[in-house]
């Protein structure tokens, strides 16, 4: 095989590997949040096996009016002994930057929104995303006539003298 053919084949192989690495390192996280709550009636008794409409809203303030919610979604929930679980963002994706403090508001049926709003906290994906944002990975590709004396991670070279 001619040296130029080897160089082209090797270049294709390295570009393919780099492409796969770049694709997998930018996998998207779900734009959803799990939430668990407990619903009780006015007397404090748990709501059981009765479907109710709950509107969830995300705000960047504890006190902004409903009309200024950054995100909202309504879901029908059927609590069991008052407890319910939902995945927020199933119908309306949550496309917020999450670069500031956010609060979750809940409104059951036509009742006023519950107070106080709940402060949202980090979850596992957020910690992983923070690592990805601060990662500093560089791949260096170069042509050389000799092997480097001390190769480093992320360094790829092509020998042109072979």
Folded structure, characterized:
- This protein has 162 residues and is of the alpha+beta class.
- The chain folds into 2 domains: 3-27 and 135-159, no CATH class; 33-121, Immunoglobulin-like (Sandwich), CATH 2.60.40.
- The chain has helices at residues 3-25, 124-134; strands at 33-38, 52-59, 71-77, 83-88, 103-108, 118-119, 140-144, 155-159.
- The strands form 3 sheets. It has a 4-stranded antiparallel beta sheet with strand order 3-2-5-6, with no helix packed on it. Strands 1-4 form a two-stranded antiparallel sheet.
- It is elongated and about 85 Å long.
- The protein starts with a helix and ends with a strand.
- Mean pLDDT is 80; it is low at 9-16 and 20-26.
Write the layout of secondary structure elements.
Layout: H1 3-25, E1 33-38, E2 52-59, E3 71-77, E4 83-88, E5 103-108, E6 118-119, H2 124-134, E7 140-144, E8 155-159
Parallel strand pairs: 7-8
Antiparallel strand pairs: 1-4, 2-3, 2-5, 5-6
